[in-house]
Amino acid sequence: MLGTAIDARLARSRKLEPEADAVTALLEKALAEISKLPPPQQEEVAAWLLAELTDEGHWATSFANSQPTLDALADEALAEHRAALTEPLDPDRL
Length: 94
Hints:
mainly alpha
């Protein structure tokens, strides 16, 4: 049940990212261990993993959407530095 959907996803990712073999081997090992669990526990692990992947996707989208703001902040910081409005960072004063 859990393995089938993830196996299909792994097969697609291998075609797209052949360098991911080391990670895929680890994931396959984890899936082999998960497959030994009773079905209700497999469902719990699958639900958790899918929620984590969804959450990661939200973070990636959020960071991607914040790029214009980050660019503007970087430009502002560089302008302040060029105008001699900055000072060296002293870790002892943090």
